[in-house]
Amino acid sequence: MLKKLLLLFFVFATVGMFAQPSGRQATDGYSPNRQAPGQPVRRSARGWHHADWQRDSLPGISLDKAYTWLRENRGRQEGKEVVVAILDTKIDVNHEDIRDNLWTHPGEIPGNGLDDDGNGYTDDVHGWNFLGNSDGEDVHYQLRETARAARLLALADTAALGHSDPRRLATLRKYAAAYREDSSFFRHNFRLLDSIYGSYRDARRILEPLLGKRLRNRASLDSLAELQPGLEGPIDHFRDFILRYNLSDSLIQTNRETDSIQNRYFYNPDYDERAIIGDRPDDFFDRRYGNPMVRGRVPFEHAIGVAGVLAARRDQGLGVQGIANPIRIMPVVMVAEGDEHDKDVALAIRYAVDNGARIINMSWGKRQSLYPEWVADAIRYASERDVLLVHSAGNLADDLDAVDYYPLDYTRDGEFTRSFITVGALAPRRGRSLVARFSSYGQRNVDLFAPGDLIYTAQTGNTRAFKQGTSFAAPLVARVAALVWSYYPDFSAAEIKDILLASATRIDAEVYLPQKDEQAERELVPFSRLSRSGGILNAFAALQLAAVRNRERP
Length: 554
Description:
With 554 residues, this protein is of the alpha/beta class. The protein folds into two domains: 1-31 and 143-272, no CATH class; 66-142 and 284-552, CATH 3.40.50.200. Helix content is 38%, strand content 11%. The chain has 15 helices and 15 strands. α7 (218-227) runs antiparallel to α8. The longest helix has 46 residues, at 166-211. It is globular.
């Protein structure tokens, strides 16, 4: 029985931390989209995502080659400033890799307590935080969308709703069923982890006095088993499970804390996730909430890594080599651990558009959406004002032609915008393992791929680390879009998207299809089947194509 429990623990520990049972990606929380666990990569490989496919034999975006081309063809001419909104968590705005690229509101006077420009947001000097209140408190954890649906369903008059909006009732019931399944999973998992931890602690208490530092030595355990056959249980625990899977006290504790958070917040029907903010999340017209504090520490720090990929400067000799052009980052906070609120998403998009963003980066997503029409209207609002939106495809190895991953650029009636890009992730390898194992894909609903595994980028406190996820592929696309737009500002958002897709490096080869089950036999498919373009982001080719099309403009 103990061995069975331990095996189950291993499955939950390795899978449960990185994906939700319903397929929900937790915007980098408890998913491969969080941060890479410190893989040892050669120092020379830190900029692999900037490399050139032909010259360097790495699936990079030819950024260094693009920079050389700009220097040779543009000399000292700088591109025009492009504002890129990062819709994400709070951010370390003082990080040396990005502090000089922070957007400052031209019409706002800092700290005077007034809405100087009349945009409805007081003192929004560097952006807006939709998850904070006037006392400086922040929402750290949010419910899953399925839990919100279960709560709404419990309060609904189902007979009346079934008559007035049967599709809405069906959606609530579908999501509520997923909530019951997922919440049951995590309650069971937490009890299991408690049992496992108790067994681990008991075995360690018995064996450590006998073996000391040799507790994790298999030969020592084998010898002890021969000398004291009565200790078979705890010895088997360490020899056949703890050592086999290289588990530790800290790993077990981390998993217990992970599931504790799931139970206390994500799937807890009694958790009031908006108590700090005080708004009505199901009322789109209750809009006056939040604060201007976009900087600061939160449990889930994600935006800093995105910003490091997006805007770290090449000319300062610091840790991250970004793309050289005058970009300005506009932080808009609406992400915490859990699922984003559709109202926050829609208002964040509108805020970015109204305050001058040309590109909006969205490195997050979710499987369910209670108010997709609010977000779709905001995307239309952005598209009508010539703003480009870039969205990560997610880390669930899903076929996005078969499942929805919100926000979407399509409805039942088809695609409704031409200025929305969805990005999959590449690994730092050519050949069959080109596509990151976790990346979602789709020949219709993913536009192109960019590096997203082992990306060296900024993290809080003037430090840097390797991270992974489509979260870090999306800002590469946003960054190249900004680069092209800065030198060729007359193109529309739809034209910029078309240039990026048309100039992508086509790969005529078979690759392994991303998959959730690491034990299953891997399937080979043509790379061209995994995205609309069938290609990899190429900054050099994009600039060349933009130059040609710019000359051909009437």
